[in-house]
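Q: I'm writing up a methods section and want to include an example of the input and output format. Could you take the sequence below and give the corresponding predicted structure tokens, formatted cleanly so I can copy it straight into the document?
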Amino acid sequence: MSASTQKRATIYFDSFLHRALRVKAAETECSISEIVNEAVKVALAEDAHDFEAFEAREKEPDYAFEDVVRDLKRRGKI
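A: Here is the clean output for your methods example:
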């Protein structure tokens, strides 16, 4: 990643997370920034996947939780 596309941010980690990141960075020969960037990319990709799943199920009917519980009770399932 070129310096012109990078942005600087201050992030505060719990001390145990920071220690784990430092150890992982040393063992993988990556910087903490590279590790955090990759983790954020993975989290955002998961979000994108969730949005696609929501859109695919958008036309499915909604059920009220109370109705589902009452139906389970009526059918002797609970």
